[in-house]
Fold:
Amino acid sequence: MKIERVELLHIAIPLVKPFRTSFGSVDSKDAFLLHVITDEAEGWSEFAGDPDPLYCSEFIAGAEIVIRDFLLPRVKALPEPRAAAAGAAMAPVKGNELAKAALETALLDAELRAHGMPLATYLGSTTGQRVPAGVSVGIKDSIPELLDDVEEYLADGYVRIKLKIEPGWDLEPLRAVRERFGDALPLQVDANTAYTLADAEHLGKLDEFGLLLIEEPLTENDLRAHANLQRRINTPVCLDESIHSARDAATAIAMEACRIINVKPARVGGYLEARRIHDVAQANGVPVWCGGMLETGIGRAPNLALAALPGFTLPGDTSATSRYYAEDITEPFVLEDGCLRVPSGPGIGIDPLPDTLARFTTATHLL
Ligand code: OSB
Ligand code: MG
Structure:
């Protein structure tokens, strides 16, 4: 396989409603796609980060430079630009996991398409498998607004609700959701690093709500603080932002900094490392689930292939297209009995719709 051309397409797609977290609010998904053209097949991927480095240190403008000037030249210098060799070739570049994931995934897609193999088969899951879908519900201006949204998602069939929380928006919304929808509803929360250890006693009050987990309550990468918190509360701590690699996962598990891990392929440098985290967690009896970054269909399809692996025992943030977009750049993913299906085509199993993609593309750069 020889790389002939790599295109980077900036896209902007309106969200059906603003999505607010403890780190900010967005009403549009701004991202870029990578389109790798080789002599054997073409591959697609999506950069998962945002225009601003608020969720993580990477951001769109920086990632474009990192890919163009540091990652792609290293991959192009390989005798054969196979996805399995790309990780090692890119390793001298520190960090930048989201950028690495985007490049590795586009290469992997091209390679698998050349072999006619679906990503799910490559990873060890099954195409056509149904993956239970949860939904992440943003911070709202009022409790009634939150309850309306949760009601709508439950009517759609989502099997698990995740509430975004922050200081001042935690106990009250949880109490309201439990009162309205009952104790049996699978419910979890995500703080996106909004608390400190000084809040440990307050966070202990979440125990009464019988949550599946609390995601990333404290400062990113502070495993010691998360371990300290986990000793003081019953709700299982789940790490998102703090896990960048399989090594991080092994360390966090050994330190008892978490009891559950949110696996986002982009955050850990791609699907190969995500698979390793799944394996490490499974060997330690730690459940994992697949997180999301409001991906378009190009990012959603491969996440479903990953989420179908056996260690993904909790519903993911792999929601249907309609939860994000009135119109997406791919065919929509539709909820069937609370589940999405793993695509069955080769590679990531989905292609952008050319006309729709053209309408949502704001700039195209040849790398
Ligand atoms: O922390 O899981 C997160 C969205 C963007 C950035 C970070 C997160 C999220 C979500 C939504 O919670 C996940 C999704 O539905 O894609
Ligand atoms: Mg999270």
About this structure: The chain has two domains: 3-116+353-366, 121-341. The domain at 121-341 is CATH 3.20.20.120 (TIM Barrel).
